[in-house]
Amino acid sequence: MFSYKSKYCVATAMAAMAALTGHVEARDIDLQSIGYFQFSPLPPSLSSQTDTLLLSDSPEYVGPVGGTLSAGTINGNGRIYFYHVNEMDQPHKIAIVLENQTAYPNTVHVMRQLKSVATPDYFAAGRDLSRKDLEHPLDESPNARPLYSLSIPPQGRQLIFSDLENTPVYQDALFTGIVDIKTEAPIFARIMMLPMGMDAIDASHWAKNLPIDEIQLRGTYTGAKRNMEVTTPFDTTLGGAFVEIGNDKEDAFINGVDEMQNKAFVRDRGNYGVSYTLKIPTKGNEPFRLYFNPLGGPYSGSFTVKALHQQGARRGQTDTRTYYIGGADGITALGDGTILDSRLMGNYNAGDLLTLNFMPAGASNLPIRFLLIPESLANPQKHQTIAVNVPKDVTDTLGHPTQSGTQIPVGPINGKDTNKGTVDSSKSAMTPSKQAETIAHEETKKLSNKAVADAKKEGQLKKAKDAEEVLARKKAEEARVAAEKAELARKAAEAKHAEVERKLAEKAEADRKAAELKAAQEAQAAKEKAALEAKKAEEMRQTEEAKRLDAERKAELDRKVAEARKAEEERRIGAARIEAARKAEEARQAAEAKARFEAQRAAEKAALEAKKAEEERLAAEEKARLEAQRKAEQEALEARRAEEARKAAEAKAALEAQRAAEKAALEAKRQEDARKAAEAKAALEAQRIEAARKAEEARRAEEARKAEEARIEEARKAEEARVAAEAKRAEEARKAEEVRIEAARKAEEARVAAEAKHQEELRKAEEARRIEEANRAEEARKAEEARVAAEARKAEQARLAAERAEAERQAAEAKRIAEERYQAHLEAERKAEEARQQALAQSEVERKAKERAEAIQRVKEQQENARRRAELARQQIEAERKAEQAAKTGPSFSELDDVHEDTPSVTIPNAVSIDELTKPRPTASQNTRRRNQRQPQQNQQPAQQNPMIYDQQGQVPPDSQQGQQSDDQNSPKLNPMGR
């Protein structure tokens, strides 16, 4: 069923192989470039596991004969999961029979039953059942209503999932399915593979138990429903992380017993048939992405992700979406030959609670991972950080303690600093904790060196600042001495400076108003454009709706015309049938008028023709009904496929639109940051000039200083108001852009929906045309058949007329020669008397021969019963011999005995020799490998059998007859095999 790889060395080898071979397909993200092998694990813990699982997957490949595949006891809520391949030449079926082994009636409620397609494509079968499991979830509410309920009497048996009776599994085809039931008392269930048409309940009494294969995936387990939760929330500030499922470590495989092997210990390696509910809490301050990443090999299945928003405006709301891996996305399975394949499963916000529902898909491989990657790490256009978990007791080179989860800057991807933050592959042999400690020490050393350099640079800057202050004081003193001389010049300069500032303020105000007006105009234009596009989309929708209504009206009209033609054809057929009956009646009456014998013969032929015509009509109606039913099923299948393709296209378009919107928003944010940085730089430059000017004019009076401070405060407030206005304008522009993008997205969705609807209408019209052509062809065929039948009736009538004329001639001839034959009448009577005596003697001889044949037949039946009882006894002795051989090296014979204590003893017929009883017979062995990989089995030499001896008259000896009569009275009753 799967190739489980539990060793991480295998996964590492696969990664190396993928890197060497350049395997890049089926990847939504380049995991190696973002530090995949340094992601932090988020181990899940088991919250609860409930319900019983009866697994039937061993033998996986069934052949050369069928039989009982798996059996076990279910009490309460339970699930039956089967997964088998038919390796026999003839098609077979899967049958599930329940047996009530208690002394009281038992009620069983069937809650859900699902089956996959039977196909040689194993991934397609497993993927189909995984999809149906999520599309038709099990209702676990207390008031859930079952599909149907059964009441099984004590020691009674009942067949469930009757749809399997009509589902043939052809050679080399895989077939899988599940049944969820609820019982009031313990019930024993059997899963069998039987030939088509065989009675499953009857076969459950004698079907042979097939041996388990080396995978050993069958038995009764506890844990059909498995709830798991990640106890440590995923923090988006600490880099990428993963949750691993199906590794038999954090997620252990469930254990059970095989009741067909005296409750031997078995393990469900892969937890196949188990429904998972996995919860992942998150926290942080940035969005993140969820990816699916197969580790054990190819995987093809479905997953449902529920996101509960716990922050922001959508707090308390839940988004649910199902993701399909393989099939519709253009690949058979994900992860073939590499562990670096991935598939995006949505974008989410920090703080969302993720709940994943899935069942490990059949034919797929484990373990699997769910990757949680912050948006800054997944997006190559942004700087990223890698989280390094440093122990709390680790200190840097200055002796300061470090913090757990230190953020190490990596730098932009695909740039000059690509190698920053990567881990040397030569150190891959080190443990993860050792690697983290080494990286932490290296980064701490770098940070400490940087801190020393910063401190040195700060001291140098301080000295330079002190020198500048001394120079400034000296210049201020010189300026104070020359202040009186420059008073007039200062006043003139102040006046000129005030005039320049006034003009600059007026210009800035004018620019601000112009920018606001332009932004308002652009917003109005965007709003009008969005309204126009919405109007166009609405008009297009109305047009498409009108076309759809017109197409529906035409289709309805065509259907009514077809129904009218069909009714007219039926009326014509009825009239033709009535006319034929009337003509037959007339012919019968005319024939009775001529000759009673001929009239009776004509009536019988007419009745035979009418019956044949009625049978042909019924066969034609049945054929038409089956053809219509097949076409309807085909149409439903095509509609479902088209709907799935439409949903996939819509999802893809929505994802692309969302990505484009996010990219535009990021670009706008980058431009806004650049603008703000430029403005901040300009403000800093202005402040520096202002400080120099204040140092130069330190000698000014206190009033001038206060006036200058007031002016500066007003300028600052004006600047703040301008910045706030620009921010508001930018926010309005962003909102207008979002409105435009949303309108465009809705218009695109409407267009896509209209195109899909138009295509559907064209398909329906084409289908109606084909149906009409088929109806016309059927009418022409029926007309031709009616014409041929009319010609046949005419020919038959002519033949009957010729026969009547010939009969009249023969009657006249008979009357003429009657006189001649009268003289020979006495001679004929004498000869008849002699013939009668001979016939009596011959009858006596035949009666005696018949009695002897009946006696021989009874003897043969007794011999057949003796052979059957001998075969049953030989099987019992063979089972005891094998148990005795197994007891020499294993458990005692009583532990391996599979027969109930109340099984009566077996009487061996006297008419069978001991060689016949001990003759070895071949058993059905199972090899899980494919037919071309198997080793030939050694043939066993059959023992000689002593045939029963008869006398020449075909009678058995008296002693043998007495033994057979005694065996008929005391026939053995063997318990069903596999119990």
What does this structure look like?
The protein has 979 residues and is an alpha+beta fold. Helices cover 51% and strands 17% of the residues. It contains 12 helices and 26 strands. The strands form 5 sheets. Strands 2, 3, 5, 7, 8, 10, 12, 15, 16, 17, 20, 21 and 23 form a 13-stranded mixed beta sheet that branches. A hairpin with a 5-residue loop joins strand 15 and strand 16. Helix 6 (487-594) runs parallel beside helix 8 (702-822). The longest helix is centred in the C-terminal third of the chain and has 121 residues, at 702-822. The protein is elongated, with a radius of gyration of 46 Å. Residues 2-25, 383-429, 921-931 and 933-979 have low confidence and may be disordered.
Helix content: 40-55%
The parts where pLDDT drops under 50 for at least 5 residues are 2-25, 383-429, 921-931, 933-979
Structural class category: alpha+beta
Describe the biggest sheet? 13 strands, mixed
Shape: elongated
Classify the beta-strand content into a percent band.
15-25%
Give the termini separation.
26 Å
Strand segment tally = 26
Query: In DSSP terms, counting alpha (H) and pi (I) runs of 4 or more, how many helices?
Result: 12
Radius of gyration: 46 Å
Overall residue-averaged pLDDT value: 80
